[in-house]
Amino acid sequence: MKDFITVAIDGPAAAGKSTIAKKVAKILNFTYLDTGAMYRAVTYAVEKAGLNPEIEEESVKVLPGMTIDLKEDGTVLCNGEDVTKVIREPVVSSKVSYIAAMKPIRLALVDMQRALAAAKNVILDGRDIGTYVLPNADVKIFQTASVETRAKRRYDENLEKGIATTLEEIEESVRKRDYIDSHRDFAPLREAEDAVHLDTSNLNIDESVEAVLKIIVEKTGIEVPCH
Asked: At 1, is the pLDDT very low, low, confident or very high (cuts 50, 70, 90)?
């Protein structure tokens, strides 16, 4: 019998996975592991080192000795530097799919993710959590929304963070990322056969949270604390 519960939430870019996963983790008192932030941190490190994030032979040079620390308050540290905001900038967003498609980098980060999932109740979100990182997860959810909905959500999010982008640029970026993520050779974005499909195009954040909580309860039988 497993000692801990693992929840895998997969889906395309800007589907709101991280936002929902963080809120659900807080309600259930689970640990949220932001896998996307980890790949973004590597992308930032590659860019900072002046290397080309589209070339694997260059990008893997940042791995030896690299540390990525995810704090409970959402702070992301890369080699001791607070990169929480900068990893959400367009320069990183436009390149992270290349980094995420590189097998040596995925293997290094997956080892970190699996070790954490074996030691506590966790919720992870990404592109291949249920299909590759945690194929035996207790709960698998494939969360998606229309391209237009996802682009608008990311646009509004960037406005709140003071990141200057246009809706058109984001929609183009979302479509590009969808293609790259679903066509990469290693662990591409796809819906696990035993995942529950959840389209949040017409759901707000609170409704999406409740939908995910309902799925987790149905799959595990755990009780949800009052929230």
From this structure: very low
Q: What are the angstrom distances between the C-alpha of 171 and each of 97, 105, 163?
A: 15, 27, 15
Q: The sheet that has 76-78: what strands, in order across it?
A: 68-70, 76-78, 81-82
Asked if 149 and 16 count as a contact pair (C-beta separation under 8 A), the reply is no
Report which residue type is found at 44. Y
Residues 113-122: what's their mean pLDDT?
Answer: 86
Is residue 165 within 8 A of residue 33, CB to CB? The reply is no
Question: Tokens standing for 26?
Answer: 């807080």
CA distances from 217 to 25, 40, 171, 211 (A): 13, 31, 34, 10
pLDDT at residue 8 in the model? 97
Task: For residue 70, list its beta bridge partners.
Answer: 76
Collapsing DSSP states into helix, strand and coil, what is residue 71? coil
Q: Which residues of 149-167 are buried (b: 16+ CB within 10 A; e: fewer)?
A: bbbbbbbebbeeeeeebee
What percent of the chain stands above pLDDT 90? 72
E strand map for 128-182: 139-144
Q: Which amino acid is at 89?
A: E
Q: What is the C-alpha R_g of the chain?
A: 17
